[in-house]
Amino acid sequence: MERTYNCPFCVRRGKGIDRRRNLNVNARKNMAHCFRCEWKTRDAKRALAPEGIRVVTSTVNPRRTPLPEPALPESFSTDFRTPFGARVLAYLLGRHLDRGTIFGYGLGYCTRGRYAGRVVIPIYEGGTLVTVQGRVLDPEHPGPKYLGEARPKDAVIFNWDRAAAAGVFVLTEGPFDALALPEFAVAALGKAWEPAHFARLSAARPRAIVVALDGDARATQTGVIARCYGLAPQVVDWHWAHREDDLGGCPPSVKASMHALCTSLASGARGAIPSGSRTPRRSSMRSWTVPVS
Predict the structure, then answer these.
(1) DSSP 3-state assignment of 118?
(2) What does the alpha-carbon distance between residue 37 and residue 13 come to, in Å, rounded to a whole number?
(3) Residues 6 or more apart in contact with residue 247 via CB below 8 angstroms
(4) CB–CB of 265/191 below 8 Å?
(5) Where are the domains of the chain?
(6) Of the four listed, 8, 31, 95, 181, which is most buried by Cβ atoms within 10 Å?
(7) Model confidence over 123-171: pLDDT tens digits?
(8) pLDDT per residue over 172-184, tens digit each?
């Protein structure tokens, strides 16, 4: 069970008072993470007790509790002719998504229920819906920026099918970053790349992996690169010019540069790995600095 709270650590970490409930607490896993100040813990019950936040950890074995079949929210709509639908479409176009991507990925919205006031992203694998994720449209919307359904971590990598077919994975933080480069980019829901995600990448035997987390996540990116080493013949460390940069908000010229890089990796490495061979245990490392536009 996940709940959100105003983070008591934001002030201490120089981020000011949190009034938007950015602290996400997963009671079942006894973990907590603030998406504003990046405070996190693997022992939420003990760490948050002095702050007056009571975490009741679950004793139910999740393997014995079947998850409901994924389904689109009841009020889900892709009708952009309604007043709220028009706002959603303007928001998506403002994020530099073309109409082909918007309709091709089935992006929509909800006006009531758990996902009310959010853009809703259906996530499919092999043509089957595996989960959905909602993102707030209004910056003043209460609650976390992203909201999703509880699914097994290893079953949720956004845009997996398309990137796997290309053989090059661009690792990003969120679905909108991945949608900026839909031929190659993938996103781990919940922001963190977990061991199960790397296991899937290893099993896919990619030709190359490009690590392109947000510009303010340099320390996290270094750790992700270390985990990717050996999973593909080439691992690329993508440097953003500024801390506030990310794939979803970068200029078209930068996206074109990354697309060219990925296309080169996909074609140039194709003959380097004979069919049926195993991925090498070592990787050639490359550092790619974003060109100044």
Answers:
(1) strand
(2) 7
(3) 170, 172, 177, 178, 180, 181, 185, 212, 255, 258
(4) no
(5) 2-64, 83-151, 155-289
(6) 181
(7) 998 888 989 999 998 878 777 888 887 665 456 899 999 999 999 999 9
(8) 988 999 999 999 9
Q: Which amino acid is at 7?
A: C
In sequence order, the β-bridge partners of residue 113 are: none
Q: What is the CATH number of domain 155-289?
A: 3.40.1360
Six token digits for residue 73: 């929210």
Instruction: Reply yes or no on domain 83-151 having CATH 3.90.980.10.
Output: yes
Give alpha helix (H) positions in 14-113.
44-48, 83-94, 99-104
- CB of 236 closer than 8 Å to CB of 209: yes
> Which candidate, 195, 215, 210, places its Cα nearest to that of 285?
210
DSSP annotation of 170: E
The stretch 192-212 carries a mean pLDDT of: 90
CA distance 102 to 110: 15
One-letter amino acid identity for 228?
C
